[in-house]
Amino acid sequence: MRKTGYRTVLLGATLLVSACAFTEEALWPSLTGEDPAGRRGAQAAPATRVQPAQPGLLAPSAQPPLGTTFFQTSGVTPGTPTETEVGRKINDMREELRQAQGSISTHNGALQQIRTKILQDSQRYHGTIAAVNARLQIGTTPGNPILVQQFNSAQTDLEKLHEDVGDMNKLAADVAGTSTKAAFLSESSRATRGVSGAIDEDHRQLSVLEDEVDRTVVLIDRLIKEVSTDVRRQTNYIAGEKANLNTVGASIKTGEIYGASLSQVAKDSQERAHPVAAGEARDPGGRRPLVVIRFDRTDVPYQQALYSAVSRVLERRPDAVFDLVAVAPAVGGAAREAVNTNRSRRHAENVLRSLVEMGLPPARVAISTRTLADAKVNEVHLYLR
Q1: Which residues touch 377 (CB under 8 Å, ≥6 apart)?
Q2: CA dihedral 222, 224, 225, 226 (to 10 degrees)
Q3: Most buried by CB count within 10 Å: which residue of 89, 268, 348, 366?
Q4: Fold of the CATH domain 85-254
Q5: Domain 9-47+258-384, what fold?
Q6: β-strands 379-384, 365-372 pairing
Q7: Contact 344, 380 (CB under 8 A)
């Protein structure tokens, strides 16, 4: 039996484990308090990546560790002029080595400064998010302007972190240039050993130079590796935090925390949902929907249940795609059916907008329409394709 009134339908057997991320295509939510379609009072949808520190609390991911090495060169041993052609060449290479080691010192100074700035920006970001989470945890009003201001501040801090990683990327390119010069210097020092006209002192000094060049090359390789590791970790971290910040923004807009513990999500869903009976709401292909949203009133608060359903599916099937079906009642003749179909289609487009705000790429969702004789109001069904 179908009852009038709003009910969001979840398939308990279909919903899997929560939390999944689509960081590459995550969108910043609007925090104006208005629906993108122009309706006042509409609720924003959450993002799909949440890592709660405790039930009901949205928390940023842990700041990934940064390298701690201080890259210091061993210096260049001065030589004694031998007045030979090989001796002069060794002296030139010694000067090139000094320049390379000077570049390493410059790179090291820049690296330590960037790391310090990353830590400062990260601490400020985490502090702001912690303040927002604390307020959301005890409850707040939708679109609380204080939280909106804090959200904007956190967004700015995250952008600063992104700029810091950009600076580190530039540093990596500079280090790579120094590495190329050091590698050429290493080849030149070995080639010089085969040049005729050298005396024993030339070869002794050349051996010392070769050892110092080799140590410099090893130091540069370590510097490149550590900078590259820092860049990779921070880039992944920032991408994830953009999705996390999406969720925080959606929570601020609605005044409701998304991404609570599974038990809490299930409890909230049961208060406004009922299980789908066998054979109910199936599509022509025999599929049962993940979610059925019935639009029997304005501003139906479906986002929490929708977020929970999709995120759990994506945890088990990260490549999942979905069909969003706008269902209109097949009553009142062709003209009435056309009106209902248009309205239902608009509802489906709003649901799609919510999914995109949650971080789901729009290419993963296909919208279609159908009429259903059993439908009493316009509905939107979400199916796993």
Answers
A1: 4, 294, 295, 296, 329
A2: 80
A3: 348
A4: Glutathione S-transferase Yfyf (Class Pi); Chain A, domain 2 (1.20.1050)
A5: 60s Ribosomal Protein L30; Chain: A; (3.30.1330)
A6: unpaired
A7: yes
